[in-house]
Design brief:
Oligomer: single chain
Structural class: mainly alpha
Distance between the termini: 40 Å
Shape: globular
Order of helices and strands: HHHHHHHHEEEEEH
């Protein structure tokens, strides 16, 4: 697997500290030990034609892999999302800060001799790259699972993970980075002279409805609807719930039965998203 080698090289780069990632070697080792694969290989050797293998005789669940493969992958995905969210939140809160905190960060950057704009761009790029390369890694290892097992359990697992808010492409902080990239690009004095966080990110309109669209490598595309599903208008002062759905701040507060003064932090943590009905506050 060529991607596996590239992924390992990326994760072994000189990061400040070791970042959580997908244990490709460990997961592939689990799949190699799978009895169902041995069964399939044996069946192929015993027949001269591929059609002789009766796929229907292979059960949907694998007792060998399912007890170790999916729990291990879920743990790794949780660590990856947690790390990304924390780093992205720290990055954006610092860059969008105002007052004393903003000038303090600027002063520190000057003392360190950093080109603030370029350093800012590079840090944002690193965050986006970390999110995307792990999203691709997870997708590829699940495809490998389904290919070996002749099943769709990998796709089903991915759907379940999305409902659990463990999918990194659903992270509200990735949406914030995308929006920040557009704002940064629009405020540049000389367009085309300064680098942006990532290319292919734009604000588009379809049937009069706005959406945030980003196209990344390996055919990954993200479309974020910017229409509030409560007031059915373009989101104003938008907030994203943990499920990834975006609402107007006032609408989200109203749905959570809290005042705009106290904000969403005072909402009952058991409150559900008005759209997907998952616990998201």
């Amino acid at each position: 697997m060529k991607f596996c080698k590239k992924y390992q090289e990326y994760m072994q780069q000189g990061h400040e500290k070791k970042l959580p990632g997908v244990g490709f070697k460990k997961l592939k080792k689990i799949l190699k030990k799978c009895r169902r694969r041995d069964y399939c290989d044996h069946s192929h050797k015993g027949h001269t034609e591929v059609e002789s293998l009766d796929i229907k005789t292979i059960p949907d669940h694998c007792p060998v892999c399912d007890g170790t493969f999916f729990p291990s992958l879920l743990y790794e995905m949780t660590e990856i999302v947690g790390c990304f969210n924390q780093r992205a939140q720290t990055f954006l809160e610092l860059q969008l800060a105002s007052g004393f905190r903003k000038y303090f960060s600027w002063f520190v950057a000057k003392l360190q001799g950093n080109n603030n704009h370029y350093a800012l761009i590079q840090e944002g790029k690193d965050l986006v790259t970390y999110a995307l390369i792990n999203a691709v890694a997870i997708r590829k290892i699940l495809k490998k699972y389904d290919k070996i097992h002749y099943s769709k359990q990998g796709q089903l697992f991915k759907s379940q993970v999305q409902n659990m808010h463990k999918e990194i492409l659903q992270s509200p902080w990735l949406c914030e980075l995308m929006a920040y990239n557009i704002n940064l690009r629009e405020t540049e004095v000389k367009p085309g002279k300064e680098p942006t966080l990532f290319d292919g990110c734009s604000l588009t309109f379809k049937d009069g409805k706005p959406s945030l669209t980003c196209e990344f490598f390996d055919s990954i595309k993200i479309d974020i609807d910017l229409t509030c599903s409560i007031c059915l208008d373009t989101v104003f002062d938008p907030v994203s719930l943990t499920c990834g759905h975006i609402f107007c701040y006032i609408c989200a507060c109203s749905a959570a039965s809290v005042s705009i003064v106290h904000g969403l932090k005072s909402a009952d943590p058991r409150k559900k998203c008005p759209l997907c009905r998952n616990v998201s506050y």
